[in-house]
Design goal:
single chain; Alpha-Beta Plaits; 4 strands
C-alpha cells in the first residue's frame, strides 16, 4: 500500500511540474537571431550634461614624480663609517646559504671591491661595493661584467668607509 501511495505522489509531482513549466519547442531557440546585445536608448541619456569649469586663481603646477633617494646629494663629504643610502652591484641570488657563501668567496677573490651577503627573505643576495652615486656603480658594474659576472645595480644602505 505504501508503494502505491509513493508512486501516486511522484506522478502527481511530475504532472504538476510539467504543467508549471512552459513547453519548449525543439525547433526554436530562446535567443534572438543576432548574437549582439540589444541596446535600449533612454531619452535622458541623449542629453549632454553641462560642463562646469572652476576658474583657478593660480596656474596649474606640474606634478614631479621622484623619490627622496633620487634627490639625495650629500651637502658635504659623509663621515667615514657612516651608513647612508647608496648603490651596490648585485651578483647572485639564491635560497641556499651555502651557495651564497660559496659564491661570495669566489667573487671576493676575483673582484677588487668588498663583497657582501645580504638576506632578504626568502633569498640570499651577493652584492659588491659601496657606491654613493649611480654613475660610480655603473663604472664598477662594467668592470665586474668584464670578469664574467651577470650583474645589475641595486639601491642599498652602504658604509662610507671605515670598518663595519
Amino acid at each position: 500500500m505504501m508503494k502505491i501511495l509513493v508512486a501516486a505522489q511522484t506522478m502527481l509531482l511530475f504532472a504538476a511540474g510539467c504543467a508549471f513549466f512552459p513547453k519548449a519547442n525543439i525547433g526554436e531557440s530562446r535567443r534572438p537571431e543576432s548574437s549582439e546585445p540589444q541596446q535600449v536608448v533612454v531619452p535622458e541619456a541623449l542629453e549632454v550634461p553641462p560642463v562646469v569649469v572652476d576658474p583657478r586663481s593660480e596656474p596649474h603646477k606640474p606634478i614631479e614624480y621622484s623619490s627622496l633617494a633620487d634627490q639625495y646629494i650629500p651637502s658635504e663629504k659623509p663621515i667615514e663609517g657612516e651608513l647612508i643610502r647608496g648603490f651596490r652591484v648585485q651578483l647572485f641570488t639564491t635560497k641556499s646559504t651555502a651557495a651564497a657563501d660559496s659564491f661570495a668567496t669566489k667573487a671576493s677573490g676575483a673582484l677588487d671591491v668588498k663583497v657582501y651577503t645580504v638576506y632578504e627573505p626568502p633569498y640570499y643576495k651577493v652584492r659588491a661595493g659601496d657606491f654613493v652615486d649611480q654613475f660610480e656603480a655603473a663604472e664598477a658594474e662594467k668592470k665586474i661584467k668584464s670578469k664574467g659576472f651577470e650583474t645589475f645595480i641595486v639601491r642599498d644602505i652602504i658604509s662610507t668607509g671605515g670598518e663595519d
